[in-house]
Amino acid sequence: MIGPLTAVTGASGAVGGRVARRLARTGVPVRLLGRDPARLPDLPGADRAPAAAYGDAEAMRRALDGAHTLFLVSAHESPYRVREHTTAIDAAVAVGVERIVYVSFQGAAPDATFTFARDHWDTEAHIRTAEVRHTFLRDNWYLAGLPAMTGADGVLRGPGGDGRVAAVAHEDIADAAAAVLLDEGTTYDGRTYDLTGPEAFTLAEAAEELSRATGRTVTYVPETREEAYASRAGYGAEDWEVAGWVTSYEAIARGELAAVSDAVPLLTGHPAKSFAQYLVENPDSYRHLLPAD
Q1: Phi-psi category of 46—alpha, beta or left, where left has phi over 0 and alpha has psi -120 to 50?
Q2: Which of 136, 292, 112, 284 is nearest to 216 (CA)?
Q3: Cβ neighbours of residue 240 under 8 Å, at least 6 residues apart?
Q4: Residue 40, Cα to own-chain centre: how many angstroms?
Q5: Which residues of 259-273 are buried (b: 16+ CB within 10 A; e: fewer)?
Q6: pTM: predicted TM-score of the whole model, two decimal places
């Protein structure tokens, strides 16, 4: 299969890497982008761009030259992330990229509770004003994050209250993104898709599912905002980063991540993975919760 060149950013990461592998398997031309080319996967038919940081306009123009479509995975969280995104977008437009598929976040809005979701809104706004076809894929929380955020003590803690989250698997995000990227028509132009799991559940229910998978008691401890900031104070993270961690839970408490979408089955032709299914398929995700041998 031959088609126009697709540039995939974050190709050494959890989302970009999965998308790159899916595209490469179809035989479409793929260019892999990353800050460290040595970490990029070795995929048949794919070429690797030189090191390209989003905030380096010249490097991004070189890396994107000749590409028809840009799959833009959001940069690592930082106070400068929106500026980095806009630089990368402007570089893409400058060299003639015709379409951008951007990985955003569900509930992206200028007044979103989750502070990082505001960055996604600002990025979306910049893409909308650019002369480029675009599609936004708004992910919910990652299913992988739930066991990862559960401590070795078997406690998942945060100010999520009894709110619900429709968390989604990386694999489903990648399948949905690949479906959009492989469509050379205009079906998905100007569209926004919320990518969620098949159900919304509370963090207490997530703990119960982890208990079933691990064979030990896993509990959810709801925190107040003050308790959440205090329990994360020892990580040595900057204030803006801790605020992102805390407000991601508060967004759940306020119901901003509870909406379940049919976008994954609509785009991929298969059901979205449940949390229980994810745990069966990814036992390493909760290895730290199992008793030591």
Answers
A1: beta
A2: 292
A3: 79, 115
A4: 18
A5: ebbebbeebbeeebb
A6: 0.96
